[in-house]
Amino acid sequence: MVMSTARGQRRAFDRDEALETAMTEFWRYGYEATSVAALTQAMGINPPSLYAAFGNKRQLFSEAVARYAGTHGSYGARALAEPTARAAVERLLRLAAAAYTEPGRPPGCLVINGATNCTPASEDVKAELREWRDGTKRALERKIDADVASGLLPPGTDAMALATFYAAVVQGMCTQACDGVGRAELDRTADVALAAWPG
Q1: N or C: which end of the chain has fewer CB within 10 A?
Q2: For every residue of 118-163, which 3-state class applies, written as one string?
Q3: Chain segment 48-97, per-residue pLDDT in tens
Q4: Closest Cα partner for 22 from 149, 51, 83, 132?
Q5: Is the Cβ–Cβ distance between 61 and 31 less than 8 Å?
């Protein structure tokens, strides 16, 4: 894609690279605190180029979240590919500990932190991120239910409560990473959480 930058000048515009930059800005500062001016400065484009390529800030955010979920935030999907719920939870916690403290990246998780301090005007943003999180929790609940049915977990195991507990652990690990806690300590948190797995 090529965008005009000034009269008589044309500059190649790498949309994929710009989206990666926007994703990082939203990840670092959250939706509302990231202005169009900050985005265009970081992306190295002007506002008309942003609107032409992405529609508006809200549409850009949704696209950035989808990119995050498919790249840096793909640990949830990779964990859920494990054959059992126990293996999925362990992998989820280990991958989250690594992702939340990855050098050169903002700490924590865009899907957890992207709308923590939004005003009522951005309720749709909060709802979008909540749906991403709920999707992972529901998938984990289904895996737990399947393991109860197959005898891998005790009868009567509360799949919803167990999935919610580990979702809460993951969200807490995200907050700890944003507070500067390192990967080794998050791994120890994962150890404690895994000890609560029903046996």
Answers
A1: C
A2: CCHHHHHHHHHHHHHHHHHHHHHHHHHHHHHHCCCCCCCCCHHHHH
A3: 999 999 999 999 999 999 999 999 999 999 999 999 999 999 999 999 99
A4: 51
A5: yes
pLDDT tens digit string along 137-161? 999 999 999 999 999 999 999 999 9
Which of these, 67, 63, 65, 32, lies nearest to 50 by C-alpha position?
63
Neighbour-count burial for 132-147, b at 16+ CB within 10 Å, e otherwise: bbeebbebbbebbbeb
Q: Is 10 in a helix, a strand, or coil?
A: strand
Structure tokens at 188: 């120890």
Distance CA 5, CA 8 (A): 8
Q: H/E element holding 15?
A: helix 15-29
Q: How far apart are CA 116 and CA 180, in angstroms?
A: 18
Residue in 166, 137, 138, 148 with CA at minimum distance from that of residue 84:
148
Q: What tokens appear for 64 in the block?
A: 């950035």
